[in-house]
Amino acid sequence: MYIGIDVGGTSTDAVLLDGGKVKAFAKVFNSPDNMLKSLLEALDEVLEGVNVEDIKRVVLSTTVITNLIAERKQDPVGLILMPGPGRKLQQYRNADVHIISGAIDYRGREIIPINEEEVVRAVNELSAKGYTKIGIVGKFSPRNNKHEIQVMNIVKKLKPDWSIEMGHVAGGQLNFPRRVANTLLKCATKEKYNEFVKAVSNALEQRNIKAQVFVMKADGGTMTLEASVDHPVETIFSGPAASTLGVQSLTPTGETSLVVDIGGTTTDLALILSGEPLLSSKGVKLGEQLTQVRALATRSVPIGGDSVLEIIGKELIIYSERAGRPYCMGGPFPTPTDALNVMGLTALGDRDKAWEAMKMLGDQLDMSPVEMSRKVINSMVDMIVSEIEKMFLEWEQEPAYRTWEVMQKKKVRPQNVVGVGGGAVGFIPKIAVRIGGTPVLLPYASVANAIGAAVSKPTLQVTVHADTEQNIFSIEETGLQGRIDREDFELDDAVQLAKDYLLSLAADMNINNQIDEIEVVRKDVFNVVRKMVTTGKIYDVCVQTARGIEYHIGAGR
Q1: Distance (Å, rounded) from C-alpha 10 to C-alpha 306?
Q2: How far is it, in rounded angstroms, from Cα 306 to Cα 323?
Q3: CB atoms within 10 A of CB 26
């Protein structure tokens, strides 16, 4: 038996799967500031009458980080950067940037030493502004982390209670701006993400569940709960990935679908082409800044069923944040859920309170509660459809989308508009009509994220950096270093080294029998040239067990 859990901004959903069937499911509205309580309630519902020793795997998805960013509630961060000579830096949102001396070249050699006085000055300035979370990033730190560690030690000596993250840990690939973005996000979200990890660990311990525990990544793969502590940004679009896999498992093999997941805090968009989720070729993009996070081609729109509504002048404003539950459920402000309640499109909460909420808004525009509710729903649809159109323009630039379009032998968009999440019933038919598609409301649509988590294959990733001139290699994920003992070491050997190490990790985790394919995520080659002669090569290789779903879902209880 597998358990899937989705921890959203509004509710915690859970499902129990047994042999491809949904045996039990639960939707628990989150208790304010008490994630553990919500997790325990959801677990208790799906575990009724179940021997916990039969639970083989628990997989979680979460919108914790996505919602923090969508609602702009991440922690403020100070950055100490070492870009080296000739590098122009862009501005980073929500960060105070300090540039210091110090440079490592692309081979990992020190060319400019650290100036300790500059580090002390940066720390004093950040301290005066109240910062306690700091990111330290050097341009070529994946090749040599000496400078980042040196700066970290100076900062730690001055401010032992500060939270410090280093770029080579937050993002191990080359590409300095993206590694800075990863480090910034990790600093800004790690503390709140750790609260999620602690709540999950406590809940499973209290219910005596000893199964393997994984967290979904943005690309639809997974990592262990323990590993996610050091890589929280990998979960940034965990929720959208889970809903995408949920739809993939609930629809017939080979279907092409636009996925619209309308939750309480966000609306997530994704695309499934001929049965396979579309993978972004560029990774996660936040505003104009790309990160090193590999992800499905999803978009998280910061509006949902719990978004705050307000009339300003004669205009309806839908805010990109929630302030608790809908008014009909005891919340402080009117929300789109209240509008759905008035129109009979949801049974959540007290209908009289929903009418009261819509009357409060409607009175300001000389509208009845029903007219106001229609306006709210139509405004939500307008905003979501606008984002869908923008997303299609991005999707159509993806190589995988263009290949799929060629296979169709004509320019065509997916016709199925599959709605999942709590607000799907009220919005999806209107959204589908607006974009000329067919609305599809699936069984278990309200807990599709939890289903997607439960059916996801466990994945492992290994990144190898090999330098044939220095005859050394290192494994990014574990820090292991070793010697290359062959003079004819080539790219294929680096790939095989990564695959062999991945299989050994899988054996240690007792999931090697679940691995049927290893995917090469990235392989780069750099020549080492001295005096116009190539004296060696540098290989960067990343491999991962294949992402996907274990099975399609059949009939439930």
Answers
A1: 8
A2: 8
A3: 21
Q: What Cα–Cα distance (Å) separates residue 307 from each residue in 151, 289, 376, 506?
A: 42, 25, 11, 42
Band the pLDDT of 150: cuts 50, 70, 90: very high
Whether the per-residue pLDDT at 544 is higher than 80: the answer is: yes
User: Could you tell me the CATH superfamily of domain 251-447?
Assistant: ATPase, nucleotide binding domain (3.30.420.40)
Domain ranges of the chain: 77-184, 251-447, 461-545
Q: Residue 352: which residues within 8 A CB-CB, separation 6 or more?
A: none
The tokens of 30 are what?
Answer: 């989150």
CA angle 456–459–464, rounded 5-degree value: 160
Same fold, 77-184 and 251-447: no
Please give the Cα distance from 237 to 10 (Å, whole number): 16
Q: How buried is residue 223: exposed, middle or buried, by Cβ count under 10 Å (0-12/13-18/19+)?
A: buried
- d(Cα 424, Cα 432) in Å, to the nearest integer? 11
Digit-coded pLDDT (tens) for 355-371: 999 999 999 999 999 99
Q: Residue ranges of the alpha helices (H) in 456-513?
A: 491-508
Rounded distance, CA 422 to CA 349, Å? 13
The alpha carbon dihedral of 111, 113, 115, 118 has a sign of positive
Residue-level pLDDT at 555: 44
The tokens describing 505, both together, are 């990790």
How many Cα atoms are found within 13 Å in the side-chain-facing hemisphere of 102?
26
Residue 287 has what pLDDT? Answer: 63
**For the structural domain made of 77-184, what CATH number should be given?**
3.40.50
CA distance 435 to 131: 46
